[in-house]
Amino acid sequence: MSTHAFSPPQRTLMGPGPSDIHHRVLLAMAKPTIGHLDPLFIGMMEEIKSLLQMAFQTQNALTLPISSPGSSGMEACFVNLLEPGDKVIICQNGVFGGRMKENALRCGAKAIMVEDEWGKAIDLNKVEASLKQHPDAKALAFVHAETSTGVQSDARAIAGLAQKQGVMSIMDAVTSLAGTPVEIDEWGIDAVYSGTQKCLSCVPGLSPVSFNECAQSVISGRKTPVQSWFLDMNLVMGYWGSQSKRSYHHTAPVNSLYALHESLRMLEEEGLENAWSRHEQNHQALRAGLEVMGIQFVVDSADRLPQLNAVAIPEGVDEAQVRSTLLNDYDLEIGAGLGPMAGKIWRIGLMGYASRKRNVLFCLNSLESVLLGQGLSLDAGAAVKAALAVYQ
């Protein structure tokens, strides 16, 4: 068999993830690999923990990156906090609430589902009613930013309902972290997980998590062993803890952690609130351009994710062909719909380093050209002009 060196093209990544990665982060990965127990590496680990506390807006001591993707962060929260027979209320308004259910069932827990229409925010009245109906629930789990639909739900209010009923809250912040406000301590979230490949604009393969003291006490007081050895926080903290002598747990992805360290340094340099504002401004510019083309959002304005824009396919347009042409002719990636939204929407990401003026204008211009090629009647150049008006 003959093989060749793999040379990927330079794409503009404006789908649901991964996002564009800044050259500083890519260069950080190319630094010399050192041992995962090297004193210098351990010093960097402490900085990563501190920087993640900044990103999550928390003082939680148990804040660290799991050495695998965001789905493992989800699993880490469930397997550490749930035991067989526990009852957990799970909010589902898209794909990832369903994945929470799968995790809960594999822990031997009972999942009580609170379901809302895809494209709508979580209904607080339904959540409150379910909490009252199941006073013996141990936890309430929900997705803050539903990547499959572009919806953001009211995390503060949901966490408040959990606190009122005395149950733990588990929050999915995979798409929201660093893109829109995530304030773990202010909101009273007990456990949260995210991913590095979205608004942190880091390489895929790491999952930042954070557990508060209440969650830590639940983990340390379990009656049964954590279902997963690799994700057992009691063991992982032997490596990520602050003690001078660290126990070997696994070989950490050293170079990927270099990349996370650099991406978090860049977030700190920009300022967290500035990053939130940047995502919002670019969203508004993209929105203005899309609406000039007659492309409508499927999510109410109050519940839209600025970093993940779900828009309806114009009538008569071959949506898969549009995505294919954008990818092959323009090296531009946007996302398709999932589940009941498959074939009905595009998901246009503006996450992290991908959330910049250049990308917004490039996307609008490219999409306009492809739609004109499919016979749609558009005012050429109007979309970019509308977006520029927002920036000006």
Automatic annotation (TrEMBL):
Q: Which UniProt keywords apply?
A: Aminotransferase, Pyridoxal phosphate, Transferase
Cofactor(s) the protein requires to work: pyridoxal 5'-phosphate
**Could you tell me which InterPro entries the record lists for this protein?**
Aminotrans_V_dom, Aminotrans_V_PyrdxlP_BS, PyrdxlP-dep_Trfase, PyrdxlP-dep_Trfase_major, PyrdxlP-dep_Trfase_small, SP_NH2Trfase/AEP_transaminase
Q: Which GO terms describe its biological process?
A: glycine biosynthetic process, by transamination of glyoxylate
Is Transferase one of the keywords UniProt gives this record? Answer: yes
Q: What is its EC number?
A: 2.-.-.-
PTM-bearing positions, type N6-(pyridoxal phosphate)lysine: K198
Which residues does the record give as substrate binding sites?
R347
Q: Pfam families from the entry?
A: Aminotran_5
Molecular functions (GO terms): alanine-glyoxylate transaminase activity; L-serine-pyruvate transaminase activity
For the Aminotransferase class V domain, which residue ranges apply? 36-337
Q: Which family does it belong to?
A: Belongs to the class-V pyridoxal-phosphate-dependent aminotransferase family.
Name used for this protein in its record: Purine catabolism protein PucG
Native organism taxonomy = Bacteria, Pseudomonadati, Pseudomonadota, Gammaproteobacteria, Thiotrichales
Which gene underlies this protein?
pucG
